[in-house]
Amino acid sequence: TLSDRLTSVLQNLRGRGRLSDADIDATAREIRIALLEADVALPVVRTFIANVKERAKGAEVSGALNPAQQVVKIVNEELVGILGGETRRLSLAKTPPTVIMLAGLQGSGKTTLAGKLAKHLVGQGHTPLLVACDLQRPNAVTQLQVVGERAGVPTFAPEPGNGVGDPVDVARRSIEEAKRAQHDIVIVDTAGRLGVDEEMMRQAADIREVVQPDEVLFVVDAMIGQDAVSTAEAFRDGVGFTGVVLTKLDGDARGGAALSVREVTGQPIMFASNGEKLEDFDTFHPDRMASRILGMGDVLTLIEQAEQAFDQEQAEAAAAKIGTGELTLEDFLEQMLAVRKMGPIANLLGMLPGAGQMKDQLAQVDDKHLDRLQAIIRGMTPAERDNPKIINASRRQRIAKGSGVAIREVNDLVNRFYEARKMMQQMAGRFGLPGGNRGSK
Ligand code: GDP
Ligand code: MG
C-alpha cells in the first residue's frame, strides 16, 4: 500500500538534515501515485505536484521532521488548502426566498440530497419548500415527496392528471408558491441524464434562468473518479454552478473526484453525503478529505507525533538546564514564547497542582506584563541574555530605552530571573528532574 511505500521512503531519508531535490523528487513520486490511485485526474495531479515541489524547495528545514515527512506535511497542507481551507456557507438571499438549485447526472444523488438539505435547514430554523422539476422519470416526483415527508417539508409538484408538465413552468410557479406560503428557502430538484446531454443542460439552464438561484449546487458521485473532470466542466459550461456536493462518500472511493472538481472549476465543495439516510450528511471537511485522498492517515499521525515529540525534547533540554542552574534569559524567552502559544498564562498556571494557593500571584501574571518582559529580553544582546551578570548600569539604561520601559523594570526582570532560576533549580531537585541537586545547598 501507499502507507508502506511511503514509510520506506521515510526511513531511507531518515537522519538527513535538509530537503534536497532528490528527497523532494522521491517523495513526490510516491505522492503522485497516491493521487492517481485516488482517481485524481492526471492534469490536476501534474499541477498539484509541481506546486508542491516548488513550495518544498523553498521550505524551511524543520528540526522535528525528516525531509520526506516535511514533503508529506506540505502535500497535506496544500491539499487541505485547495480543497477549501475554510468551508463556505450557503449564501442566503437578502429578500427571501433563497433559491437553491440542484444539478448533476442521473443517480448522482440530487433527490436524496434535496431531503438531506431540507432536514439540515429545518434544523437551523428555516422553512424550506422542495420543488419537483424532474418530470422525466415516472417515479421522480414521488421519490422527492417521500424524502420531503421524512424531512418534514412540503413538496411543490405539478398537479396529477395534468400530463407530464413543463419543468420550467413548475419552477416558475414554485417561487410564487414559496412567497405565498412564506417559505424562506426553495430547493429545486432537477432531472439528470446518465451522461452529459445537451437537452438536459438546456433544461437546467432554462430553470436557472426563471428561478434565478442564489446557489446552484453541482451534485457529483465520488465514485465516478476520473469522469468527474469532464462532467464538472460540462455542467460548468452548460448550467454554471456556485458550489459542489460530493455524494456516496460512504463507498470505498478515495475521493480524488473532490480534488479534480475543485481544481478544475474553482468552486468550493460545500457538503458531503455519506449514506442513503437523511442523517448521512455533513458539511465538507477538507482535512478529512485530504487524508482520505492521500490514504495515509497513519503517516500524518506519525508526523504530528514527531512534531510533538520534538517540542517535548526541547522542553526536556530546558528542564535539564533548569536542574543544573544553566538556564539563560534566552531559554527563558524561548519558553515564554512556547508557553504563550498555548493560551493565556493564567489558565495554564492554574492547571498546575497546588496553584490554588497562588491565585493572587497568578492574577498578576497577566499577558501584558509578559509582553513587557518579552520586549526587555529582546532588547538585550545575545551575550547579555546568556550571562545577565554583565548587565551593568549603562547596559540597563540602553535596554530600557530600546524596549520602552523604565530602568526599574529591567532591574526587576534581572533580579527576578536570578530568583526564579534558583527556585526552579530547587524545585527540579525535589521533583527529580535531570541535573537537579535534590535540595542540597
Ligand atoms: P438523482 O438521480 O441525482 O436524484 O439521485 P438519487 O437521489 O435518486 O440517488 C440515486 C441512488 O443513490 C439512490 O439509490 C440513493 O439512495 C443513492 N444515494 C444517494 N446519495 C447517497 C450516498 O451518499 N450514499 C449512498 N450509499 N447512496 C446514496
Ligand atoms: Mg432525482
UniProtKB/TrEMBL annotation:
Main subcellular location: cytoplasm
EC number(s) from the headed UniProt entry: 3.6.5.4
Keyword Nucleotide-binding recorded: yes
Reactions performed catalytically: GTP + H2O = GDP + phosphate + H(+)
Subcellular locations according to the entry: Cytoplasm
Top-level lineage group: Bacteria
Keywords for the protein's UniProt record, in alphabetical order: Cytoplasm, GTP-binding, Hydrolase, Nucleotide-binding, Ribonucleoprotein, RNA-binding, Signal recognition particle
Keyword ATP-binding: no
List of residues binding GTP: 104-111, 189-193, 247-250
Residues in SRP54-type proteins GTP-binding domain copies: 268-281
Annotated family: Belongs to the GTP-binding SRP family. SRP54 subfamily.
Notes concerning its domains: Composed of three domains: the N-terminal N domain, which is responsible for interactions with the ribosome, the central G domain, which binds GTP, and the C-terminal M domain, which binds the RNA and the signal sequence of the RNC.
Subunit structure of this chain's protein: Part of the signal recognition particle protein translocation system, which is composed of SRP and FtsY.
Protein name in the entry: Signal recognition particle protein
Gene (UniProt): ffh
Residues included from the entire protein: 4 to 444 of 521
